[in-house]
Amino acid sequence: MSEVRTRFAPSPTGYIHVGGIRTALFAWLTARQAQGQFVLRLEDTDREREVTGAAQHIVDSLHALGLDYDEGPGIGGPYGPYVQSERLDIYRSWAEKLVASGRAYVDPYRTEEVQAFREQAKINKQPFLFRNHRPNQSFVWNGQQPLRFKSDPKDYQWHDIVMGDLKSSPEVIDDFVLMKADGFPTYNFAHIVDDYEMHITHVMRGQEFLASVPKYLNLYEAFGIQPPQFATLPHILATEGNRKLSKRDGAKDILDYVRQGFLPDALISFIATLGWNDGSEQEIFSRTELINKFSLGKVQRSGAHFDERRLIWVNGTYIRQQSLPKLKEAVQNYWPKEATSYPDDYKEKVLGLVQERLKYLAELSDLSIFFFVDIPPDRSLIDNNKQLRELSDEELKQLLNAARDMLIESNFTVDDLNQRLNTLLDQLSQPPAILFSLIRIAATSVSASPGLADTLSVLGRERTLNRLNTWLNIL
Fold it and tell me: Considering Cα of 233, then 239, then 243, then 244, what sign does the dihedral take?
């Protein structure tokens, strides 16, 4: 059995969002499961649409998610170059084979002439087919004119790993451009040459390319080469409706998620389940589980909706599963700037408290800021609390004075604080929603925090009492 070789072949025309990364992930999983090779190829033949820096962005995105490639730009390999603009001589050589065999011809028409053909077809209520307008005169191709494939329309039947058995009729096959006047190949031509020369065994691409497969098969046949296995991936759909997710729908740069503190393994698990599952109820997969369980045959044929809320849930679950030392390493760049002067053991205690509440790492600064900064008291925290706003300032002062007196006697261990707080509830005959909320607001200047005893223990006696006194003075 031949070695499995898959590829991810994006165009450097902008940032990559989840649609592109899913194609890369499925190709990576297929290769890793078979202990094969995963190849990165940059298809930069559309010079007008190329965006400066996009090629490096693609590489950075794969590296950030741990989708390591075995061959490609920067590391080379036996079938390079892996950037199409560096392979022009190869495409020209293959184009000349088609010219020599009579399966390619120079396109002599100007844009206006082709448009006239289209308009006439419309008047005649017929589909426009370029093969109906092949020039009578042959021209010698010098590499500086558009070169078209001379198609041989016929029926085709083929098997797609995802979509199953498919077929097409002759009318969908037409002559198409192989080489442009600028000397660059078109996608329709170059990817077939590259996949063959790079020994690619499995080609994964989006559903938008499905209609073009018959003309690809026609070109494979003209070259006398065996096509690879095809796997057509269904669209990732926008959160609402049934339209394909796009940048216009707010599809973000995948590196934006990384910068926000979405963990690579969480992103991988979430993206893998956009259109695939192993037949079980499992929702979150480790990278190892995905490699062992993934199958192109279990990719669904219908589109999968992108749900960022679910991504946030998956990421929060991954964060809670992290060991504290590992999470501490991951959050180094997410602390509030005021935390710089604090010792590592203090920050580790803080991290241990907020870990349960983190949905993504960029939240760390807002969730932990009160551990490092004395935030000015904000009366609106009481006014917006349904229970506390019913109490007078005198009643609030009485409760807070009692809390302060209790805390003065505490050794500020979690167990001692819990015992004293519960005793205070009984003594004052107040529910936690009132007493604990008031103490929390006074000690932290936020309306929600980790467990009250845990929070006060980390803040310590001096800082806690000073903050309570500040609130008492205001009241």
Answer: negative
Answer whether 354's CB lies under 8 Å from 327's CB: no
Give the relative orientation of helices 187-197 and 213-223 as an angle to the nearest 10 degrees.
50
Which of 58, 61, 219 has the alpha carbon at shortest distance from 152?
219
Give 341's DSSP letter. G
Report pTM. Answer: 0.93
Contact 53, 60 (CB under 8 A): no
Beta bridge partners of 204: 231
**CATH topology of 87-233 equal to that of 374-474?**
no
Q: How many Cα atoms are found within 13 Å in the side-chain-facing hemisphere of 315?
A: 21
Two tokens, residue 425: 């509830």
Q: Where are the domains of the chain?
A: 87-233, 374-474
Q: Mutual orientation of helices 452-459 and 344-354 as an angle, nearest 10°?
A: 170
* Whole-number Å distance between alpha carbons of 288 and 291: 5
Region label for 236, one of left (φ > 0), alpha (ψ between -120 and 50) or beta (otherwise): beta
Q: Which residue has the tokens 């209790």?
A: 406
pLDDT in tens, 415-440: 999 999 999 999 999 999 999 999 99
Tokens of 357: 């509440």
pLDDT, tens digit (0-9, with 9 covering 90-100), for 136-181: 888 899 988 999 999 999 999 999 999 999 999 999 999 999 999 9
Alpha-carbon distance of 232 to 166, in angstroms, equals 11
- Alpha helix ranges (H) inside 261-363: 264-272, 287-293, 308-321, 324-330, 344-354
The tokens for 141 are 């191709």
Are the C-beta atoms of 252 and 320 separated by less than 8 Å?
Answer: no
Helix (H) or strand (E) holding 393: helix 393-408
pLDDT score, position 429: 93
Q: What's the fold here for domain 374-474? A: Arc Repressor Mutant, subunit A (1.10.10)
- Domain 87-233: CATH superfamily is HUPs (3.40.50.620)
Instruction: Show the tokens assigned to 474.
Output: 């205001």
Query: Both tokens of residue 296?
Result: 């192109």
pLDDT average, residue stretch 442-460: 94
Contact assessment for residue 89 and residue 95, using Cβ atoms and an 8 Å cutoff: no
In angstroms, the Cα distances linking 214 to 22, 168, 188, 210, 272 are 24, 7, 11, 9, 29
